[in-house]
């Protein structure tokens, strides 16, 4: 066991965050609740030189926190509802930064700029009402300008979906949003596609034309429609324009990961 005691870990990435040549762990825990004390956390667990030996001999159960001597914890944020993170160099200084998405009552898009000394500067890029239902985010350069942009999926509508025969009312805020990196630590919402219940996305050059496209799924679509949208492919047409394509009814599914 490497880490114990975090409340509802939901996403992690392995990246060398301090330039020492050792891969570190960036993880966020959603927590349990809406306010301070929810035990939500965004943290970096720096790998130590003794990591390899210590983790091989690690017991099945360890005290709360990281494995002693193997990982050093650096807590960046404890806002309730930290639901996702993505790693990229957002200011082109050669160091990996962190973008994080907050759900629950805050609904914030956060950016943590790597200062190069294991400290980070926190920026709030966007803030919305709880009805947005933030679910996930990814980073990619969508316009080929050398700056990493963000795609954010809003679609949490779990209230009611777990109750048989109840279909939640559509929320107009749900969907896929692409944020353009302006290069000055600000981002502009440059594209929106309405998708009820959007939950996860994959960003790749799917058609091989040299730009990044988006494939996304919905876990909470409007099942009372003749053709509820459970999947969409957004083909990048340049200039933050995307052409949506879906799938036929025979391929519908209750997707939760892509």
Describe this structure in words.
- The protein is mainly β.
- The chain has a domain of 131 residues.
- Helix content is 4%, strand content 43%.
- The chain has two helices and 18 strands.
- It is globular, with a radius of gyration of 19 Å.
- The two termini are 27 Å apart.
- The mean pLDDT is 91.
Q: Descriptors for this entry?
A:
43% strand; mainly beta; 258 residues; globular; four-stranded antiparallel beta sheet
* Rounded Rg: 19 Å
Helix content: under 10%
Relative strand content: 35-45%
Principal-axes shape call:
globular
Distance between the termini: 27 Å
Structural class: mainly beta
Helix segment tally: 2
Q: Would you kindly provide a brief summary of this structure?
A:
It is built from 2 helices and 18 strands. It is mainly beta and 258 residues long.
What does the secondary structure layout of this molecule look like, with pairings?
Elements: E1 3-4, E2 9-15, E3 24-29, E4 41-47, H1 51-56, E5 65-66, E6 71-77, E7 82-88, E8 97-102, E9 108-114, E10 120-127, E11 134-140, E12 149-154, H2 158-161, E13 175-181, E14 187-193, E15 198-204, E16 213-218, E17 231-238, E18 241-245
Antiparallel strand pairs: 1-5, 2-3, 3-4, 4-6, 7-8, 8-9, 9-10, 11-12, 12-13, 13-14, 15-16, 16-17, 17-18
